[in-house]
Amino acid sequence: MSKTLPDDGVIVVDNMSKAFRLHRSGTRTVKSAVVDLVKRRGAGKNMFWALRDVSFSVGKGETLGIVGANGAGKSTLLSLLAGTKTPTKGSIRTQGTISSLLELGAGFHPDLTGRENVYLAGAIMGLSRKQMRERFDAIVEFAGMGEFIDQPVKHYSSGMYVRLGFAVSVEVDPDILLIDEVLAVGDDNFQKKCLAKIEAFRKLGKTMLIISHDLGTIQSISDRILFLDEGRVAGIGDPHETIGGYRALSRARQTQGHEREWGTGEARIDDVVFENGEGRATDTFASGGAVRCRIRYTARKRIEDPVFGFSLSQADTRLVFGSNTQVESVRIDAIEGKGELVLTLKELPVAAGNYLFSFSLHSSDHRENYHRLDYAFSITVLSEARFEGVCRIPCSWEI
Amino acid sequence: MSLWPHELVKRRELIWILIQRNLKIRYKSSVLGVFWSLLGPLFLILIYSVFLGLIRVPIHLPTLVSGIIVWQFLAMCLGDSLQSILGNANLVTKASFPRVILPVSMVGANVVNFAFSFVVLLGYLLWAGTSFGVLWWLPAVVVSQIALCLGLTLIIGSVNVFFRDTEHVLSVVMLAWFFMSPVIYEPEMVMGSFPEWVHWLFFVNPMSGVLTGYRMALLGSDPVPPEMIGVSLAVCWLLLGIGLWVFRVSEPRFGDEL
Fold first, then answer.
1. What is the DSSP string of A81-139?
2. Nearest CA in chain A to B24
3. Residue in chain A lying closest to B90 (CA)
4. How far does the CA of residue B176 sit from the closest CA of chain A (Å)?
């Protein structure tokens, strides 16, 4: 109960840092410990600072999205908040019960049945058996388990595992819910269920912290965004602005200098928003699914017969496909002021990986390049199908 | 903070569920399940009596059997203790709850097992017609042994998180400890030939007092000076204190090490 901290947050992180001691070889033995002792551990030398001087607070009922590149410290931050790790410096104060979806169903014991694991998870969360009994049916139903609930969880499919884990974590009715990359697992149907549940949670005035690489989704469900970069807070605040900042930085890094913006500037492509087949803003797509790009532009003067073009490249800038309105015989009479046009790729039959989109706005004779954004937008494609090569060409075999 | 009794009382349901889990996992996919806790000591008594009868070792069977069953409680606790934190890595790294519950429930599961063995032992002693001694102090001995087991489980469980050599050290120590304690012999068999200060030293070993205490109650064996047993039982509680301290110091780093 420190008096120096504001009392308005249910989570108050004050100047908190977390360091990990790096071991040269996985597990320590007495010998290596003696060596460490003799060398006085060279304090700080073998330390890796996963988080440095992090301060923020989260108000009751707020949804805070956490974004950042891999290794930025997002998951470490959530485990610190969950209490499974202890800060090296600074403090963390939380109020109320915390349920964490750090790794769905990770606490399950393979030899116990789903039912036994549910009661164990509930007890860990601090619920009495009576309270769990009341929630049990809802959990089984949400997870869609049926009679599998009395099977040892080692016989579960990974989907069932995750569904049961999610169901338990939300049904235990915590005050604070920590969610790490849940939105990346499970099938589409389950993801929709998760999102609906998260929305319901929000309406109940619960506090949530969400990590996701799916920037579109996290932007739409968060009240504020915390942007972590190399263990430090690089930004916190309005979702649109903060994610914009993160995008700009990761774009600059991901395209590794390939990115280039050039042109006369008479007309500009202000922004491109990517949506999946269901119209949800995202930068993660399923291979074979649709991609819609909403291209917003501003023309400072009237431009007759302009051509919009795009190209899709692999992360190393090798071209996969490109086209423009001229090639596709779409004539645009003229543009002036602000406007938007939509490019739809009905299906994206490419292999899993990161891809870069380039957009261009130029004159029909290609003499005037008004604005070009080369390799400026990065998307991730996930694929369940396995195949060799860049793209999947429908094929069949006859014997 | 999370080591104190009120925390354990508050989380008693979790402790009980974990005790059940530990027992279930021990007897998983065995047909007779938890009955093995009864059958184990039963066969132990049977086999010892048959073979010791055959080879005519001049040893008092109730003394031997009670010693082994009491020792087994400690041995099983310490065998399990290695995994009390490591074996629950997925819980420790993913969920927040007082960590001390893990060793407590592990000892708890062994207490349940020991209770079964103890019932078998009592049945055997009644059948063999032994005369009981001072029974009223048995609870003090039992509780002290549980304190000893918990203390050592706390120490071994935490240390093993950081040094995996613990397992090998433990097996050597246990073997030596077995012969230093009056498990298969009675204290007077060795004490007669030593000066008195050695007797005191002998009872610094907590298991000397625990085993002697059980036998004085259950078998009515010759009383050892109560102060000596007192020393042993005090060491049990001292080790519990040390265990709690070690655990408290190392607990914050479990999450990083696992």
1. HHTSS--SEEEEEE-S-EEEESSTTTT--TTSBHHHHHHHHHHHTT--HHHHHHHHHHH
2. A112
3. A107
4. 21
Q: From the CA of A230, how many Å to the nearest CA of chain B?
A: 19
Strand ranges for A325-364 from DSSP E: 334-345, 353-363
ipTM of the complex: 0.80
Contact A212, A181 (CB under 8 A): yes
Contacts of A123 in chain B (CB under 8 A): 11, 13-14, 17-18
For residues B159 and B237, give the distance between their C-alpha atoms in angstroms, rounded to a whole number: 19
Distance between terminal CA atoms of chain A? Answer: 75
What pLDDT, in 10s, does the model give residues B97-152? 888 999 999 999 999 999 999 999 999 999 988 888 878 889 999 999 999 999 99
Spatial separation of the C-alpha atoms in residues A264 and A109, rounded to whole Å: 62
Four-point Cα dihedral A184, A188, A191, A192, nearest 10: 150
- Collapse the DSSP code of A14 into the 3-class scheme (helix H, G, I; strand E, B; otherwise coil) and give the result: strand
DSSP A66-95: EE--TTSSHHHHHHHHHTSS--SEEEEEE-
| Longest CA span, chain A | 79
Q: Give the C-alpha separation, A74 to A77, whole Å.
A: 5
The DSSP 8-state label assigned to residue A298 in this structure reads E
pLDDT digit string, tens, across residues A151-202: 888 888 877 887 888 888 888 778 888 887 765 656 677 778 888 888 888 8
If one counts every other C-beta atom within 10 angstroms of the C-beta of residue A8, the result is 10
Q: Which two tokens stand for residue B45?
A: 């008594």
Contacts of A109 in chain B (CB under 8 A): 21, 25
| Domains observed in chain A | 9-246 (3.40.50.300), 272-382 (2.70.50.60)
Residue in chain A nearest B11 by alpha carbon? A126
Residue found by looking up tokens 């079964």 in the block? B116
Residue in A65, A39, A54, A133 with CA at minimum distance from that of residue A89 = A54
Name the residue among A247, A243, A271 with its Cα closest to residue A371. A271
Which two structure tokens, joined as six digits, stand for A75? Answer: 């998951």
A269-295 burial string, b = 16+ CB within 10 Å, else e? beebbbbbbeeebbbbbbbbbbbbbeb
- In terms of DSSP H, where are the helices of B56-165? 61-81, 83-86, 89-94, 101-128, 138-162
